[in-house]
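As the next step, I needed to go through one protein, both as residues and as discrete backbone shape codes, included below for the reader:
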Amino acid sequence: MKLFIGINVFLILGAGLLPASAQIRPIDEGEHPCIESWWTVFDDPLLDSLESLGLQRNLDLQIMLARVEEARARIRLAQSHQYPSIHLNPYFASQSLSPNRPTTTAMEEGRELQRFSLQTYQVPLDLSYELDLWQRIKRQVKGETHLKEATEAEMQAVALSLSSEIARFYFLLRTVDAEQAVVQRGISLRDSTLKIAEARYAAGLVSHMDVQRAETEVANAMVQLEELNRSRKEMELSLAVLLGINPADISIEKGQLPLMLPRIPVPAEAELALNRPDLRQAERMLASTNSQVAVQKAARLPRLHLLGSAGFLSREVSQVFSSTSGTYLLGASISLPLFEGFRNQSQIAIAQRQVEMAESGFQQHYLTALREVKSAVDNLEVLSRQVQVQQQALQSAQTTRLYARELYIKGLTSFLEAIDAERTALELERQAVNLKGQQVLYTLALIKASGGKIRN
């Protein structure tokens, strides 16, 4: 008798889409995705704590962790076929044979068979072992190992993407904070301009239209501030989902954009395949598909199994374990697939096509990596030039605003000219903030495109 056993591995996650009070299993230190803490280059303790929280609680990482554990279990399942299968199969049967049973011997006329009872007690130990002559099992284990490595690389890619998104939303918040500060200063300036207009109207120097226009400008600035408040709240809610916490519980204190941006070395093309986890994943998937081709080719070759069974067989329970009840069976079997409806050829063709797809997938990922690096570098260069030109325009606008304000106080220019100078300066100040925010975002993009490896 031959019998094969498998290993069933179940991975149960206790976290789901539950209320805020529900607990999510934190990722242990040994399970933590192996990515560098690249965000520390910004020297922002709050960002550091948010990144740590996200890497511990994010639900996408929880899913990837389960997939990694599943891949490891599949390796153990494939390895189990390298060992013999041994089963203990105690057996008892009681059989009663009918007097009307057929018989091969001639019966005397008038003679009848008697009912006959038969009891069987058997305690066999069955063994089966497949000799891996063509390394089919070994290659299957190798293929599952490559899949496990690809899954681990995918988890690192998810972790890198997650940490990049946390930083991106964090610095978007800081950009909004800076814009709010600019708009708040603009409201203060317009409040003072409104007071000047009211004073000049009370003195009979201008019409009430100047006062109404000044009130309109204050109201417009307040509307802009509320819009920024709404945008900030939306970003906080998005950040809460990334962190794996209840959106109702998040509140990020106001802060500033970094004064100086870190200098990120541009990786060489040859480094990308080593640095980027998505490229490592694609390369491991290619290796796995190559192993599957070898496995499918080996399936066409003969399989040799060693069989064995030893135990006790008796018709009486009291004699089951006596020396005279001992029994054994030794043997071998060979299986050679002669014709299976061309299934083996089709399986090999499928595996070969999967290799071609994996090769194309790797090339596509590599070209995407080159494009992302080039795009981030080019955008940072363009933004650097934009910032220089914009700073000149901003200085000029701020000087014009002060000059126009003095002229309006002295009654040497109209309110429209004064408020237009204020609008222009305010718009350029907000533009400066947005350009600085874009520089931060493209710095993040370069870090992500480099695979999070930012140290020489």
